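G., the chain you wanted modeled:
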Amino acid sequence: MTPETPVYHHVSLLVASADVSAAFYGGLFGFIEALRHDGDDGKVVVHLRQPATRAVIELIQDGGRAPPATEHVHLGFGVADLDRFEARLRELGAPLARERITIGAERMIFLRDPDHYLIEVNDHLSS
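Predicted structure as tokens:
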């Protein structure tokens, strides 16, 4: 990779509550708050970062603007043990948005965050 090659930095989500979404992504996926800006206009921007990666989720709370609802946009996460993660979801009372599916050798489940964004969790890290 050369110095002028762009690298992935973040995905930005419009959310109803930055605090509720930050708690969700922190609790389930280990994200921590890396940056927060509370604007005078009520706009809140929060960057969440996973300590083990450089992946960032930017949460934007913009004065009551509703997040878009779409089935085509989703966040994907990989885990080493999908069965354990699914058991953890059951313990937390977090419902699945879809039943588990398998494509090739990869198994995946889907859930929704507080703003109804679709989240895929797959077991591609287990191989």
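DSSP finds two helices and eight strands in the chain.

Shout if anything looks off.
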